[in-house]
Every structure is written in C-alpha cells, then in structure tokens.
Amino acid sequence: MKIGILGVGHIGKTLSRKLSATGHDVKVANSRGPETIDATVLATGARAVPAAEAVQDVDVVIISIPLDRVPDIALLLAGVPADTVVVDTSNYIPGRDSQIAAIEAGQVESLWVVEQLGRLIVKAWNSIGSGSFALKGMPPGSEGRIAIPVAADDDGERAVGMALVEDTGFDGFDAGPLAQSWRQQPGAPAYCTDLTRDEMPAALARAEAARLPKRRDLSGAAIAERFGVGTNPDSEYHVHLSRALFM
Length: 247
Description:
10 helices; eight-stranded mixed beta sheet; alpha/beta
C-alpha cells in the first residue's frame, strides 16, 4: 500500500519504521519540513516529504499528531479522495492539548475529529503506549501477542486499519463503530494495558465513560511526577500503572 504519515512523534516514527519494513511505500511529514526528520525514522525505507506531498497519491493517510492540531490539517485533507482511508492515532490529553470544550462535555474524541476533518476516519494505535508499540510486536499466532482495537464506521475501512495493525506486529481487534471508540480512550481498561485478543472484549465492555477523565488525569499526574512533564515512561511502568488505575 501507499501510505502517508503526518507526524513523526513517538507513535508516528514507529509506524514509519514498521510499515515500511513490511513492504509498504511510506512517505512521512511533519510541520517543520522534511529536512528536520531524523534519519532513524527513515531507517527501513520511508521517505521524508513536505506535508502536502505526504497526502497525495496514497491509499492511506495516518494522522499521528496532538489532537488539538487536527483542525490545522483539515484544509490539507480537503483534496484527498473520498476513497483514501484516513487513520487517526491521537488522544485528548488536557495537559498537552488546549482544552477542547466539546470533548470536556463528553463528546467521543473520534467523532470530534470527524467533525473537524469533515470525513470518516479509522481509530487505531491510540490505545497502546509508545514503548510497547516500539518493542512488543510479535509474528501472527504468537502466544501473548498484544491486540489493538480498531474502530470505524465503514466496514471496509475498518478492515484496512486492522490489516495494517497486523503488519505492525499486533492483533487487529474489531472494536465496532466510532461511537464506541471511547472504550479505547485514555482511562479505559483497554488503554495501554497490553491485552491479548482474548482479553480485549471484556476490557472494552468494562469501560465506564464517566470514569475515564479522572483515571486519565491520575495516570498523567503519576507519570509527570516520576518522569517529568512531557516524558514518556518505559513500557513496563506504563503498563503496570495503567492496569492498576484503569482495570
């Protein structure tokens, strides 16, 4: 597949390496220009290009940027054909993003993104920590392989998202429509807890929407106190903390 990735942060850079390593034609872009993209992001064959080029002539666009910057790319995606699959990996983190009133009032994050972009999306890779994503991929059929929920309103687009998750070393799990994607948001039992395919259904079912924000904020405060603001914890600490707070 031809894939364009917008954003080369913790998740975006791993997507670039994993997807290009499995044979996909990958272009990556950030907001500062291709010359600022580190060579490690391109180590397995991805190409650094301007943002406008990253979304041209591709089958899939993956958005891996802070949630509050999503409105900034709406114009960039306006000319992308309707049959191009758009995958969003972002999460709402109040301490990082500017406050988004609609989400604070309870709107599902994925549906807010749909409103900003004016098109359907697939929600994937938002529920795994960057450390686990970089280090814990396994071949299909491996015992203990981690599952990643994938939500979308279009069945075909959801299937594309699940197939790409598989290509990154994880089991793609059908999480249903975007209206249910709050079950994989920060604070939910399925978020950053590194569950298997067999464990995922119960975790998604146990999610309680009203409790997610408080749990999310407790986790963020604990990580900031131990590692500093804006610093990602190692994967084992993150998983242990998430399981203690969210499950």
